[in-house]
Amino acid sequence: MSYAFVKAQAGQHSVKRMCQVLGVKRSAYYAWRNRPESPRTVANRKLLVYIREEYELSGKSYGSPRIYKALRQRGMAYGRHRIAHLMRQVGLLGQATRQKRRPRTTQSDPQAVPAPNLLNREFTAEAPNRKWVGDITCIETAEGWLYLAAVLDLYSRRVVGWAMDERCDSSLIQDAWRMAVAQRQPDPHLLHHSDRGSQYTSGAYQQDLAAWECQVSMSRVGNCYDNAVMESFFSTLKAECAYEPFASRAQARTAIFEYIEAWYNPRRLHSTLGYLSPAEFEAKPRH
Fold first, then answer.
1. What angle separates helix 80-90 from helix 39-57, to the nearest 10 degrees?
2. What is the mean pLDDT of residues 239-266?
3. Is a pLDDT exceeding 50 seen at residue 99?
4. Contacts of 74 (CB under 8 A, 6+ apart)
5. Fewer CB within 10 Å, N or C, the chain?
């Protein structure tokens, strides 16, 4: 609208000159400017305050679907399309994952005998600690790569164990596994799924799994979809937390710790869980 443009530029240019160029009357412009705001405009300005609150709380990662769900959980019944329109209008966009070359974290040991794919892409579980998936990813820093190993519970998508190190070896995934079992104390026959990387087929790690009487499952060769939930978590982390290189490994460690323990597990809304966080989903009564 011409009037809105004149108002926005009033501090930079003459109102008289802008009205002449745009072909509008100054009297009409001033009448428009002094007119009381419509109830819809007032309501939208109030809604934008709530939208910005949730956007900032998410680390500027939420798009309109999660903002919509977050406001619904606060008892605010605003329309999804209205929220999306206002976010586009003010330039609030969810983070997008950067695509770039990264070092390989999966290198098979030709001497190792891999386990069969028992999970078979059944990415749901009836209760916590029935099915866990594990994997490794790399995080870019100015000091070099930092490797993150994680263990995730398929029931709630909760990260139950994790570890970080400069080296990508079996001790890294052992640290993540030991954190998981110390926190969760799973019953025997837990199904543990991973890729066929040498870290996961190593004798040391397989002994750890055997000590808990795990069912061991591994993805087929070169098939990332066999561990899609873990891949999805890493993509989310990189889009929302590690979307640009960290200044140091220490900075990366702190940011990832806070992301997992203070945001992802307790607060981040997950579409697969009916827009509950992993912690909220686990606390929900099971029937």
1. 80
2. 93
3. no
4. 50
5. C
For 151, the 3-state DSSP assignment is strand
Residue 107 has pLDDT above 80, yes or no: no
Token pair of 4, please? Answer: 């809105």
The per-residue pLDDT for range 175-230, each reduced to its tens digit, is 999 999 999 999 999 999 999 888 899 999 999 999 999 999 999 887 778 999 99
> In the chain, where are the structural domains located?
2-34, 39-90, 131-283
CA distances from 69 to 24, 27, 40, 78, 219 (A): 43, 44, 21, 10, 34
Which secondary structure element, helix H or strand E, spans residue 31, and what is its range? helix 26-34
d(CA 4, CA 2): 5
Residue type, 218: M
Tokens of 38: 């419509």
Other C-beta atoms closer than 10 Å to the C-beta of 60 total 14
Beta strands 191-194 and 158-165 are unpaired
Quote the pLDDT of residue 91: 80
